[in-house]
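Just wondering, does anyone understand what follows?

——
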Amino acid sequence: MTEMIKSNAYQPEEITKKDVTKAYLRWHFANEIPHSFERYLAPSLLYAMMPVLRKLYKDDDQLKAAYKRQLLFFNTQLTWGGGVITGLMSSMEQERAEEEYNNKEIIMQDDLLYNTKAGLMGALAGIGDAIDSGTIQYIFIAIAVPWAQQGSALGALFPFIFFGLYQVFVGLFFAHQAFKMGRNATSLMQSSGVQKAIEMLSILGLYMMGILAGNYVKVSSALSFKISGREFVLQELLDKIVPGILPLAVVMGVYWYYNKKGLKVTQALLWLTLLLIVLATLGIL
């Protein structure tokens, strides 16, 4: 009877959707706070997983071992990487706890948990950075630019608030999906739905960048010349033949520079400023 009572006392509790939500929100809001050079974001992940691990491991030694597993080096993007891995680790730790409680062969070895996490964190970070920081963020900024130009505080607040809300909801979605799929979550990014979403967002991001470039990059030529006594203004000719060609040339020039030299924003701005000063001095722009 004593062993049965002890066994029941050590039985893992069921991890619910609410637990996964709590785990992701803890990760989301603690993401960069305990950042360290030795472990990077691992303390944030451990903080997120602590309520889940406490429900799974009632034995102190098992709980300590689980803490150590989740405190190994970890670094990924907030929502795509953090969401998937938080949900996946909750699922895998739940399987591990059941194996230990039932004295089964341990399939969820420490190496399997960490290698799964390590294999996903870099790939998901690349996707997340490209979609969130490189696309979605600028869509919200593009929407808010006209309000900012009119002096409205909404121009500054809208991208900040809505991008933050977007990240919370997207991260929660991935966390719940990964927990539901378990080890199959490694194929989540390859699913047709996610791939279509990535492709649509990429196209939308390019479209919004085109709108921003066309409306807010202002470059015009001051060059004029006379032929047979008739004055020709270069900008008027360009507007009739290829409107917006100069702003497009500037944008494509910066794009070409990034492709050749890498994303060296400060250098690109300095070279662009110098070029524009020279062309303005010569009376071309």
